[in-house]
Structures
1.
Amino acid sequence: MIEVSNLVKRYGGFEAVRGVSFVAGTGKVVGLLGPNGAGKTTIMKVLTGYHRPSSGQALLNDIDVAVDPVAVKSSVGYLAEGVPLYTDMTVREYLDFIAESRQLPAAERAEAIAKACQSCGLKGMDDVRIEHLSKGFRQRVGLAQAILHDPAILILDEPTTGLDPNQILEIRSLIRSLGVNKTVILSTHILQEVEALCSEVIIINEGRIVAQGTTAEIARSLQGEDRLDCLVKLPANAAKDAFSAAKVGAALRASGVIGSCEVEALSGGKLRLKLLTGAGQADDAAAAVFGWAKDQDCTLLDLRREALSLEQIFVQLTGEEAKR
C-alpha cells in the first residue's frame, strides 16, 4: 500500500512536484504518465527513499519515507531509469551482491537468484559479464534485482525500455502476475503498455496530477458527453426517401436523449449513425436507437460507445492547449 498526501519536492527554487496525492493499494498496477519533465521520476525517487520530500507525506506500508527511508528501501523493489549496473560483474555475481546487500540469508540466495533469473528470462546467462549483454538483457537484469527479495512494493521506471516485442510481452506478463499480490507503480511513455497493464492511471503535468482513475473514468470526465456509433441495415423493401438523413435524424432526436445525429448512407442498404447524447445518457440513447430500428423493421448490426483513446486523453491533458 502506498499513500501519498500533498507531496512537494523542490530543487532550489524549482518545484518539481506540486502537492501530489494518491493511494495505490495491494493488487494494483498503477501507471504514472506524463511528458518529459513532468515529475514522474522525482515522485519515484521520493517513494523509494532516494530523495527526501520538501513537504507532504509518503507512506509505504505505513512507513514514512522521511522518517525511515532505510526501512522503506528494504520493502521496495526499484528499477531505476537507465538501469545502473556493475558491468564488470557476471549476472550471478551482481545478483549475489544485491542479495547480500538486501541481507537475504546465505542459504536462500541461490534459490532467490534462480527464481529471479527464471522470471526475467535470464536462464543460462548466469556466467555472462553484464558488459557483454545487450540493452534488453541489461534491462532484464535490472528487473531481476528489483524482484530478488520478493518485495511487497515494486516501483518501475520505464521497465520495458530496450526490449524487443517478444521480450516486452514476456516482461508485461511478469509484471501483470506480480501485480496480483503486490503494489506496482510503473512509469512509461508507451501508452499501449498502460492500457495492457494498468488498472489505474495517474497523469502528471508540470508536477501536478491532472487526472487519475481508470482510462474509462478519465475519458468520461473529459468528454462531458457520450457518443454512439451505430450500423443498421434497412429493410429490403425500404422506400428510397424513407430513410433520408433528415427523417432519421428527426426521428431519433424525438426521443429526447439524442442531441445530434449524423447519418451516412453506405452500400448494401446500410446506414451508419453517429449520435451525440448527454453524459450518462448513453444507455437511454442506445435503447432509443434499438426501439427506432425495431419500429422501422431495420436490423441493428452494430452499436458501440465511442470513448477517448488514452493517446487523446494524454494530449488533451498535457499538450499545449492544456497549458493555456
2.
Amino acid sequence: MEMNYLMSYFSAPITNKVPLTKLSLLEVARIIASPELEPQTLALRKIADEVEARRYKGFNFPYVTPAGVFSYCSDQSLISPSEVLCMDLDHIQDVNGLKQKLIADRLFETLMAFRSPSGDGLKWFLKIDLSKCSHRQWFDAVRNYLMSPAYGLGPKQADPSVRNESRACFLCYDPEVYVNPDLMTDYR
C-alpha cells in the first residue's frame, strides 16, 4: 500500500474545530499504542454516569477526522479525502471477537481497529473507493452489512451518527491497536 491515509488531528477539547496538524494513519496508530492517552482512558472507563463520561471524553481526548484533511471541522471544509471510513461500533459484548471477525472479512480491507475510549466498543477504519460511490453511500452500505445476519449488530451498535465526513473520532489508549500488516513497513 502506497497511501498514507492522511487525516486532520485536533487537540482536546472537542470544541476545538481548527486542526493542529495532519497525520498519517500510522502516526495515529502510534498515538493510540503509546501510553500518552492511558491516564485519560483509564479515568473515563471508571465513570459510570453516561452524561459525565461524554463530557469527560469531550474535554480530555484529542480526535481525528478519518475521512480526510480539513481546514476546519465541518463537512464543507474538506481539503483532501483519505478514502478511509471509520465505523463506530458501540456496546459490543465481545470486542476482541468482533475485531478479529472484521479483520478476517474478505469484503473489506481493514486498515486499523482499536477499542473505543469507553472500552465496550470498537473503532474500525476501512479502505473505501470514492470513485465507486460517496463517503455517505459507503457508510450506509457498510452499516447495513454490519446489521445483516453476517454480523447481527443492532441499529444503536452500528452508530448512525458518524455518517458525515467531518465526524470526529476520539483517540484513546489501546496497546493492542490493529494496523494492517501491508502498512507496517515503517510503523515500528
3.
Amino acid sequence: MNYDMLLSLIQHFGYAALFFALWLGIIGLPIPDEVIVMTGGVLTANGLLHSFPAFVLTYLGVISGLSLGYVLGRIFGTSVLDRLQRRKRMNHWLDFSKTLVHKYGSFALCISYFFPILRHVMPYVIGLNKMTFRRYALFSFTAGFVWTAVFFIVGRFVGDHVQQVGELVYRHGLRLLWILFVLTAVFFIIRYTSNQHKIQGRDKA
C-alpha cells in the first residue's frame, strides 16, 4: 500500500481506514505509521475529517495493533520469537528490545514508541516476558496517546509534505522527533506571544 492508496481508502471508508491501516501495521504494511497518523491530522486541517473522531480512531488503531503483538508474544511465546529471529534484520531489534527492558523495565515500552521498528518488536518481547496486560496497558497506552497526539498535531501543519516528513522520521527516529518537538513548541510560543500583543493593543485602544 502506498500513500496514494492510503488517501483513496480514507476517502472511501473514512475514519475506519485510519484505524485498520494502523491496526494492520503490526504485520508490516509498507507505509510508516507516522505517515498514517500525520495524514489524519492533514485531513482534519483540510476539513475532510472531524478532528475528534479522526484522532480517536487513529489512537485506537495504534494501541490495538501494538496490543496484538503483546497478545501474540504472551500466548505463543518462543514460537513467535523463533519466527522473528529467522529474519536477520530483526535480531538487532530483538536484542535492543531485551537490552531496554533489562535497563529500563516497563519504561522501555515508552521509549520504543519513538523508534519505528522497535515500536512493533517491543510488544512481542514484553508479552514473552509475561508482563500483565494491566501494566502493559498503563505504559503502552499512555505513551501511545502522547505519540499519536504529537504526530497528529504535526500533520495539521505539514500539509502536502506529510509523506516526506514521515519518511524522514522513520529513517532518523528519535533525533528528528526532538526537532519536531522544538519546532512545534516554537510555533505555539510565537502564536501565543502574537495573541498577547493583539490583546494588549486592544486594551490600550
